[in-house]
Amino acid sequence: MSNEIENKVALVTGGSRGIGAAVAVRLAEAGADVAFTYRSNEEAAAKVVATIEETGRRALAIKADGADAAAVVAAVNEAAATLGRLDILVNNAAAFIVAPVDRLGTGELEQTIALNIRAPFLASQAAAGHMKDGGRIVSVGSNVAEHVPFPGFSLYAMSKSALVGMAKGLARDLGPRGITVNVVHPGPTDTELNPADGEMAATFAGFTALNRYATPEEIASVIVHLAGPGGAYVTGTAISVDGGFSA
């Protein structure tokens, strides 16, 4: 595997499982040292650390709650201080709250805003302060920001759509420094929380043109491409990696 981001340092939020873990490992395979945050599952975090270290790269697991604004900023600063620099940020950690609009309270609203909007903004702001020219910021959105096929997704879709506006604004702010800011919208992806053999999996897969779920590695490959030289002229945009879900 080519080392297109050799000796870069990356931070992935929510990197102990699913898409986040796949991104963390793929970044290491591409040549980066990788820090990642996790909320509580120390066993899962240890496994990701071990996998990264098997590639010959350094790994750092940081326990941090994305709903805690101070913890988000502290995690960014710890990654940069411990690994010596910060070149790449992947905002992946998120809350997934789905319910009819009349059953959503202020608690669900505040949790979603804190994790899905405030945390990515604060992490991006803090990371930009550490990045040299040519850094990369990629946020993990969702296909439902482009197409909502069922009721109950209003809160989640709103929060993921906000990432697109953030990317467009930050792209202008950081563009003079060559720092790119983008969003990747995954479609149905085979993870622990949304398995490809789950109860609704056949229905969700049927909305895609390819009639299947993505693997986490397929999503990770696009994110890592944006984090490398291939992403140098891509900024302020959202890329759907959804098997044609939004077609």
TrEMBL record:
Lineage of the organism: Bacteria, Bacillati, Actinomycetota, Actinomycetes, Streptosporangiales
Family: Belongs to the short-chain dehydrogenases/reductases (SDR) family.
Coiled-coil regions, chain positions: none
Positions of the Ketoreductase domain: 8-189
Domain of life assignment: Bacteria
Protein name: SDR family oxidoreductase
Entry's Gene Ontology molecular function annotations: oxidoreductase activity
Family annotation (InterPro entries): KR_dom, NAD(P)-bd_dom_sf, Sc_DH/Rdtase_CS, SDR_fam
Keywords: Oxidoreductase
UniProt keyword Oxidoreductase, yes or no: yes
Biological source species: Actinomadura harenae
